[in-house]
Amino acid sequence: MLLSFDDGPHVRGTPAVLAELERAGAQAVFFVCGEQVERRPEIVREVVAAGHELGLHGYRHQTRRHWTRRLLTDDTRRAIDAVGAATGSAPHLYRPPHGVFSVPGLQAIRSLGLEPLLWSTWGRDWEARATPSSIARRATARIAARDVILLHDADHYGAPGSWRATVSSLPIIFAALARAGLETERWPARGPAERSSSCVPSD
Questions:
Q1: Number of folded domains in the chain?
Q2: I want to staple 123 with a disulfide (CB 3.0 to 4.6 A). Which of 34, 139, 142, 186 is the partner?
């Protein structure tokens, strides 16, 4: 199964998540926002140096439901450039803010050589009321081998300080995965997940 984090990089949240992943020997995909990459390129380099996958979460964190293909293409190219300047490499995965794709938007993403990846389970960890136990419970309920878990390593677009509960939830999540006989994998360990989210979240 795949573990993923959205909205970073974050000056405190991302390093804390990286430390928990290292402690657990776990792999993850970090869907970064271009505007945050430009603010903290050194943290993006830490993610890459730790052996994790980078994906794009757009340049601006805005819902793309009514964006034109040209607007989405320009935003995505700007994000690609930000990651390239920070790391010297180009991501190949894309997840739109709030999980919203339009048909023209999906076509634009694929024309840029990016592969869309949503998720199948999440912890709703951006909410102010989220706790480590509630995040872990939601994220691992009925977890299966082909699932993609969505969490957040930043609070730029969520409740202030929400990343702290996410970090504290990770040992609980890893314990639940171990009980289920599951491990985190690098993309694309076994190809795209068979299940994807049909909801429109507020990440």
A1: 1
A2: 139
